[in-house]
Design goal:
It comes from Pseudomonas viridiflava. Helices cover 49% and strands 13% of the residues. It is α+β, with helices and mostly antiparallel strands.
């Protein structure tokens, strides 16, 4: 690891989800070896997110100012372990007058490939979440999708648990939900915790992902759980 790597890692991570991510990622690779262009490709596996409103395809090429018009050598990186969620690859290019990549340079890039793929996946996760956030601003379809997801999984929630989950999806705070449902804030929080245990989620972002996840992406405990119906508590 070269001394210039850590600052570049920080810059790349800070740019996750932004429009200048690819440039920062290119500079991260350039801190390890000189490249004329970097091609980033990441596609969510379609069978993993069949209900997702939009599959985020990340397919960008960044070139250096000195880049030649024709590339003569390349290094293609593939994940050491196939991701269950994404099909991805990273390709670095060189052209004349630069020399071809040496074996030492190829190994150097391969050594940091787990880090590179981790950062790239986090960036696309952020883009996917932004898409889901946009969908969450369309309340007419949000509740329907939530109920559809419950039918797909066979999980059952009480009426109050359903209400607080829908409120959570639309961005309402516990206090706002308490006012809407005429409950105490602590009671709303209690219903949220119960629903979280049943659905295997940890918060709003997790709930958004759960709504569009495939069975393979769900925690094993959720897949094997026998649905239990809890009667709705008396409305008050």
């Amino acid at each position: 690891m070269t001394p210039t790597l850590l600052p570049q890692i920080g810059r790349a991570i800070a740019s996750i989800g932004s429009g200048h991510f690819s440039s920062m990622f290119h500079e991260l690779i350039n801190s390890q070896l000189t490249v004329d262009a970097t091609h980033l490709y990441l596609l969510p596996r379609p069978w993993q997110t069949p209900k997702a409103p939009v599959s985020t395809v990340f397919n960008e090429t960044v070139t250096s100012p000195r880049a030649a018009s024709r590339f003569t050598d390349s290094i293609q990186l593939n994940p050491a372990q196939e991701s269950p969620s994404y099909c991805c690859k990273i390709t670095a290019f060189r052209g004349r007058p630069s020399s071809d990549f040496s074996m030492t340079e190829r190994r150097r890039l391969e050594d940091i490939s787990p880090l590179l793929f981790s950062i790239l996946e986090k960036h696309v996760d952020a883009l996917q979440l932004a898409t889901l956030e946009a969908e969450s601003k369309k309340p007419e379809g949000l509740e329907d999708r939530f109920h559809e997801r419950l039918r797909e999984t066979g999980l059952m929630l009480s009426e109050r648990e359903l209400q607080v989950c829908v409120g959570l999806l639309t961005g309402q705070t516990a206090m706002e939900q308490a006012e809407r449902l005429a409950l105490k804030v602590s009671t709303v929080s209690s219903y949220q915790r119960r629903a979280a245990v049943k659905l295997g989620i940890s918060g709003r972002n997790s709930l958004m992902r759960w709504m569009y996840a495939s069975p393979d992406e769900m925690p094993s405990s959720d897949r094997s759980r026998t649905p239990v119906f809890n009667p709705a508590p008396a409305l008050r």
